[in-house]
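Deliverable D4.2, example record:
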Amino acid sequence: MISTHILDTNLGKPAAHVEVKLFHAETHELIATATTNPDGRVSDFELKDLTKGAYQLEFEIAPYFSSQQVKTFFPCVCIQFFIEDINQHYHIPLLISPFAYSTYRGS
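Output generated by the structure prediction step:
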């Protein structure tokens, strides 16, 4: 399973209503699209056939900041990661602010 969570560190709040796309990184094939809930989460992309390999999450954060009338330097954040064990849960959190972002392997 793949999940994500976005926290707006500028406000100290979850980033709700952000579109997140999941791709196979090698082919850039779109696998799934989701929108963060009010808690800034996508709990599951509801993938039936997860395979080993490289994946990419693409977060469309420009509309999120624009809705707050805040300019951002990063309109989109792309995070590539590798799935080795298809039976594990892969949680990829994203911390954003208008001029910075960071990520890590969550649990």
